[in-house]
């Protein structure tokens, strides 16, 4: 075979998906990358810089005859290109996608849908592709926090001081300031944000951040001068990322905590300067740059930071912020280098509480997602009815069980782990939970009564004190 059409590409992806061995998957990806259409489909689906602005992909036109065309004789690539450039949006995009879904064979239509959804459902990622074809898919380095149990705290610089910082309740962003003055704002996954939506923020970047650097921090949104809760702030930022804008009473505020040279920003990259020196340089740069913005409230600030000299002091800072309703803290060793990957020299301290809630409904997976037509989450409720939250099904085995016998799960008690209680708002009259997830992939057989809101609040209060 010297050429692959889109039906054959889909068959190859399904073959890879059915293979459990990572090494075998990589070998098959490498084999199929010899075909241009396969390579193009992978890039279209996996490149984090390319998105299509559509979360729900329509199916074929109802009652239409099955399509008989592949990508080769349908304007699929042109449609994807226009959607990526936002030249084709809204109802016009939906109508064109539905027309093409009707025109294509079932296999090619499914491939088209998966590309738009950015999910090939084949069990491999961009790193697998890049091992087979170096640099084909852009990868974006990111330094993650480790767990407290994994850190060797005895070797940390407690005498000189360890850095304890507020865990901001917003959206992580990279801010690049190139030597030529070009500014870029990207998400953790590398998705770009439209600069025009951020107005004067770009001027603040040029004034406060040295050229040739990438700065890491958390973006929050002030609404009427007050920092909005995470769900509202991130909702606004997601709206902006999709091509919208900030309302007149909404202002972005970037809280910076690290800065590295752009030259080290690469997969497996490292910057050997210790964190104490990096944060010192960042703070001095912000202070110096702020003098060029007299009378202007900077859109960029440093993350609230404290120096602690023992784990007890670090935990005291953590409890102090929890008592203020904050998310928690991150502690960083003074000598910690920056590196792409998980660093055991920066630890996230974050509250987690397990509560027992009753399943009252099964929520189907969203249309156009891989769980469409299957159980997506369980609506779980407190015994008093004042707290309700949808909890994602933990794994595929549990999803299979729910699909096979849904009635068995209604009324059952599930242990749900969360990071905080969310109070009622204009959009939700009930209490909810932040970052809820199932503790186990099964319901409890030893309990038939859910916790009420009073007990849930008491458990969180006890966790803060503890």
From TrEMBL:
Keyword check for Nucleotide-binding: yes
GO MF assignments: ATP binding; DNA binding; DNA ligase (ATP) activity
Keywords, ordered alphabetically: ATP-binding, Ligase, Nucleotide-binding
Domain called ATP-dependent DNA ligase family profile: residue spans: 160-350
A GO biological process held by the record: DNA recombination
Catalytic activity: ATP + (deoxyribonucleotide)n-3'-hydroxyl + 5'-phospho-(deoxyribonucleotide)m = (deoxyribonucleotide)n+m + AMP + diphosphate
One Pfam family per UniProt: DNA_ligase_A_M
Protein name from the UniProt record: DNA ligase
Natural source organism: Burkholderia contaminans
